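Entry for inosinic acid complex. Fields follow.
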Amino acid sequence: MKLLFATNNAHKLAEVQAVLGPEYELVTPRDCGVTEEIPETQPTLEGNALQKARYLRERTGLDCFADDTGLEVAALDGAPGVRSARYATDGHDFAANNRLLLANLRGAADRRARFRTVVALLRSGEEHLFEGIVEGRIIECERGCEGFGYDPLFVPDGFDRTFAEMSADEKNAVSHRARAVRRLADYLHGLEK
Ligand code: IMP
């Protein structure tokens, strides 16, 4: 089954495709002629995921899903949260975001953090939300070069390696996005029965 997923990020596409499995063929906005940046201007992850999915639905008429993720750091009152992509600059500058996060946590004893993903599915005129969370902590300097974003700074609970030191399969076994997408997949598979 073809499913339109609101991302042109190759890392995310590969992660989500691996979790959904081969029975779903993911199609990107670019594949459907949507080349402009999809707006995400809402104050919550739920709002942004719905906004992106509704935008794509209007532009293409296709059933689709969108996700939005935030890194929520306890000692920073949940920041960067919904602003995770644009924490340090207006662009998606991963290195600058990581530097700012480390600066804001300098000397902090409480390094607890979690990634939270919300997936919004628009299907047959209905809207559904799925959430995935992984708890962990922020270490004091970057380690590893896999993945993207805050991966080199985030160690999930139960591990001593960062997401950037894990293979894609290891990350997918526990990650926020994989958990949310597995809930999406369970829902879609349930519809087929
Ligand atoms: P998005 O909503 O998936 O685009 O995520 C927003 C921002 O959160 C990204 O620009 C990254 O900085 C960060 N982020 C999202 N998912 C991950 C992840 O799996 N690892 C590390 N950082 C992530």
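NOTE: The beta strands are 2-5, 25-27, 64-73, 80-81, 112-123, 126-138, 154-156.
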